[in-house]
Write a structure and sequence with these properties.
Layout: H1 2-31, E1 39-48, E2 53-60, E3 63-70, E4 75-82, H2 85-92, E5 115-123, E6 127-131, H3 140-153
Antiparallel strand pairs: 1-2, 1-5, 2-3, 3-4, 5-6
Helix pairs in contact: 2-3
Length: about 160
């Protein structure tokens, strides 16, 4: 009788190990494409001016959220939408993660009733923030393209 119990264990234990192996292996393969330099979110904003104008756009791989308004007139509008994976890829294709640390910011203009243009790019490894970086003639081009890509997916009334 003890031989039957051992035979059952000898057959079921390897099957159990194979099931665990295959289930763990598929999860490992799904996580492989994500690296430390993968972009997980992009924010763009224009804030300032005499009336307190603001436009804040937050984009992730599956959605876009826009807030816009004029503080002095107490006007506030919001818009949200899902985005397709192709749209996300198109937006982030303009960004060279290797040069993000080289982009230079400039001083704020809000103190003299100017507008501040801000970009925030978050990767799994690092958070990058830039204020008025349009003065950086070498590396700003990718941020301008990013801004253009974001503007292209916003509804006409929010551009």
């Amino acid at each position: 009788m003890s031989a039957i119990k051992n035979l059952g264990l000898k057959i079921s234990f390897p099957v159990f190990l194979l099931l665990i192996f295959f289930s763990c292996d598929s999860k490992k393969n799904e996580a492989a494409p994500f690296g430390p330099n993968e972009i997980i979110s992009v924010n763009y904003s224009d804030i300032g001016g005499e009336l307190g104008n603001y436009k804040i756009v937050k984009v992730t791989k599956d959605s876009i959220h826009l807030e816009t308004g004029i503080t002095q007139n107490k006007i506030h509008k919001e818009w949200k939408s899902a985005i397709a994976p192709q749209t996300w890829k198109q937006i982030i294709s303009t960004i060279d993660v290797g040069t993000l640390d080289k982009i230079k910011s400039s001083p704020s203009k809000q103190s003299v009733d100017g507008m501040d243009e801000t970009f925030q790019i978050r990767t799994r490894k690092k958070y990058h923030a830039y204020v008025n970086s349009f003065a950086d003639t070498v590396y700003y081009k990718q941020l301008q393209k990013l801004k253009d890509q974001i503007q292209n997916i916003l509804p006409q009334e929010y551009q």
